[in-house]
Amino acid sequence: MVIKTIELPSSSRRGPKKQEPNSSPLILSQSETVAWRWINQNFHFRIDNPDSDEPGRIGLGLWPAQIKILAWLQTHDRLIGLKARKIGFSTAGCGFALWVAMLNGQSRSHLFSTTDTEATGLLERVQFGFDTLDEPWKSALKVDKRNEHELVLSGGRNDFRVIQAFPTTEYSARPESCDFALLDEWAFVAKAANSWKAIEPSLVKWCMMISTGYGPQGDFFKHWNGAKAGKSQFVPAFFPWRARPGRDEAWLETKRGNYSDEEDMRREYPETEADAWTASKELVFGPGVIDAACAVDTDEAPRPGGQYIHGWDVGRLQDASVGMVVDVSRVPYRRVAYRRLLSVPYPRLQQETEDLYKAYGGMLYIEDNAAGKAVIENLRVPATGFTTTAKSKVDAISKLKLLLEHGHLLLGNCP
């Protein structure tokens, strides 16, 4: 039996509505109830619940917060979720990815997370859901391809429905368009802004960006504030620690006993949005410091009287080589040129280094690691090598912190 592709309600194909969803994570509004009934009537699947001996089942026994998320995706194209730990957001997103594949011919969903292990873990949940489908859903589609990074279901000739898992990088799935993207734990993704630039053009319909907070900075924080101000396509939804059934004050006090730092506890299991954005003591730079340093464009051509310092960190294989030029002839110091090169041959890297030096002059410093030494030896311009040690790294970060906090260094619009 082959299921005929079911079109979604027309509202899901328009731009997202600007109003926020019902703020209560435990109460369904009338429109959310209607949307959920539509999902429930059309499709059932099971999800593996790691905190229970019994698997959860979409349509039966889902937590209200999960129901709201799935219901909102019927009427909003893009949703950003700020959440407490372990309330089922990621699992709901995995369920939605399978739902998209089951009901939409030639569809594609992408699952992104911080590491390859985390991303493939998301796909494992999708595969579990498919394996435990009820009939007639189970026999509606055939498995065409299946591995730790990809599940391809076939609905007939030339009807392939793909769900793929990716570790989040700035090159993730750049060539591929997708009907649904799940961006998991986005606050913890390195270079998240660059990753978003690669992913956003690929979005055809839905996007679900979710995370616990990690201090008032970074790409997730910017997206959240933009959504709250009505300046983006994302609709914001906050879910506190109470959003999962079975949690009460006694549970919270027991959990608090496992944390030595109250700020960590508030961030992981927030009661309010402010709790979720509590700054981590692991953060070297205070809230807004990096944003302030990057607020203005500092790129500029060489100027008379400029005194320039060039610094390069040469990468190998999959690591990028990064170089910048800083004008130290005036305060605040300014980053006036920036290069980031990934997987380029040494001759190309040497040429970029020489071109920048010839344009700006000054002093050129290159980290004297194995890759850097190879570049230094073949340069046709003067360069000084330096070695990074644990002590020198701490010293450099401390001095950088002071420069940024006093507004004495502007980094411009580099990533």
Helix content: 25-40%
What is the topology, as strand order, of the major beta sheet? 5-6-7-4-8-9-3-10
Order of helices and strands: HEEHEHEHEEEEHEHEHHHHEEEHEHEHE
Distance between the termini: 50 Å
Strand content: 15-25%
Overall pLDDT confidence: 82
Low-confidence stretches: 1-26
Largest sheet: 8 strands, mixed
How many DSSP-defined strands?
A: 16
Question: Would you kindly provide a brief summary of this structure?
Answer:
By secondary structure, the protein is α/β, with parallel strands linked by helices. The protein contains 13 helices and 16 strands.
Protein topology:
Layout: H1 30-42, E1 45-47, E2 56-58, H2 64-72, E3 78-83, H3 89-103, E4 108-113, H4 116-131, E5 142-146, E6 150-154, E7 160-167, E8 178-184, H5 192-199, E9 203-211, H6 219-228, E10 235-239, H7 249-256, H8 262-268, H9 273-276, H10 289-293, E11 308-313, E12 320-327, E13 333-342, H11 346-360, E14 363-367, H12 370-378, E15 384-386, H13 390-405, E16 409-410
Parallel strand pairs: 3-9, 3-10, 4-7, 4-8, 8-9, 11-14, 13-16, 14-15
Antiparallel strand pairs: 1-2, 5-6, 6-7, 11-12, 12-13
Helix pairs in contact: 1-2, 2-3, 3-4, 11-12
